Amino acid sequence: MSCLRVHARRLPWCRALYRTPHLRLFHAYTLRDGDANVTVNVGQHGVQVHAPSYGLSEPYELDYVWLRDACRAPTSVQASTQQKLFHTSDIPLLKDPSQLLEQVPRPVELVYTTEPELVVRFAREHAVENAFTRLVSPASVPEATAHESRFRLSYLTRQVHPAQYRAHHGDVLTLGQYWDAAMLRAHQRPETVAWDAIKANDESLLRMLTALLRDGFTFVHAMPTHPTGSDPGPTRALVAALAERIGELRHTFYGTLWDVQSIASSRNIAYTNVDLGLHMDLCYFQNPPRFQLLHMLRKRVQGGESMFVDSFRVAEQLWVEDREAFDILASTPVAFHYENAGEHYYYTHPTIELAHDVEAFAGPPHGASGMPRIVAVNYSPPFQAPLPLHAPGLRTRKEREAFYRAFEAFASRTMSPELMYTHALEEGECVVFDNRRVLHARRGFDWDANEASGEVGRWLKGAYPVACTAG
């Protein structure tokens, strides 16, 4: 297609314009900002943007419906909430998308304020109306008018460029550094932050959260062990305040706060003094808690050290060393349940839960191994139900034998001393960890000699904060 260069006086908002007059019906022309190295081809179906200095090394087409839908003008989003005032389905879908535009010589322009902006003018004849408002409050629907959408090039390229898009929305999966015990020691990790610092300033909170996303766990020290209560008020344990620095407290059938104490006739193995193997909490939930806090309120026992394993590192080992086992664990459901004290919970998850292209977790593989992105690992032997015989990958004896082998390959690696980090929590110390990534365990300890008197020798206060991550 040949183009005729138009020599017009240079306005501050338009550096140069190229237009094809005989295709004016479709508004086909080219806009160029030479100083910013931006080229926009305006066509029948949309605009094609080429902006190497903004990260678009190859031209990318944005259709007119998408542009109208992405508009942030005051008539498109509510001023205080910045939420959309119409639905995507309210935008007309035309056989000729260029009909959405105003029939003027330049319905699309490239202007310059503090940076290049794309201005798109939409026709009054095809104005966007909120269908729900038209149905329930027709009198409040404003009269249709022409509409102007303005898009900064940085905004558009952020939507187009995958790396910019993920960075803008906080791609937390890129922060994780899978570890073994030697790596943690070499880098003087995991991170430990003082409670007073977290309470006083956001910089210390950010330091703790960054370490949490990087390593999957971190410690808070010098945290007062009184008060110890669970109910809101002045007697509530401080683990609630720490959890609320991360997000809202999540309520489960254990309550918003809960106690881990060794008691007789317990209905939960965590409330005994025996070895508690590596596991994750509440895998029988559809959405198990992402983060967990355990604050040591009292320690009058010998033993009871805590152990942690990065399950993502275990999965990475399988990806490199036993790809068949990795694939089986990523595609075979495992059942988890809790049936006790009138409570019945049940859900199935794959052991290795992969990110999918339709999720926000989608992105490039993690690290040099090329392993696909992992959203979570689901591993909790104490609460594992019988394998569901009707489920894919478990219907025949041969399939189950393949799963048993893969599951053993995973389990045996979790108990590798090289991968295990051991730490004896002291009174006033709180561990914060990613319950969907880091396996936790506890070594057995001597029984509380004062139990009969009502005193408890080992007491942790727990909480599950609800925090927004890359899930």
From TrEMBL:
UniProtKB keywords: Dioxygenase, Iron, Metal-binding, Oxidoreductase, Transferase
Enzyme Commission (EC) number: 2.5.1.141
An annotated Gene Ontology molecular function: protoheme IX farnesyltransferase activity
A GO biological process held by the record: carnitine biosynthetic process
Pfam families for the chain: TauD (PF02668)
Co-factor requirement: Fe(2+)
GO CC annotation terms, alphabetical: mitochondrion
Record flagged with keyword rRNA-binding: no
SUPFAM superfamilies found in the cross-reference section: Clavaminate synthase-like
The keyword Metal-binding is assigned to this record: yes
TauD/TfdA-like domain sequence ranges: 190-464
Family: Belongs to the gamma-BBH/TMLD family.
Protein name: Heme o synthase
Species of origin: Malassezia brasiliensis
Organism placement in taxonomy: Eukaryota, Fungi, Dikarya, Basidiomycota, Ustilaginomycotina
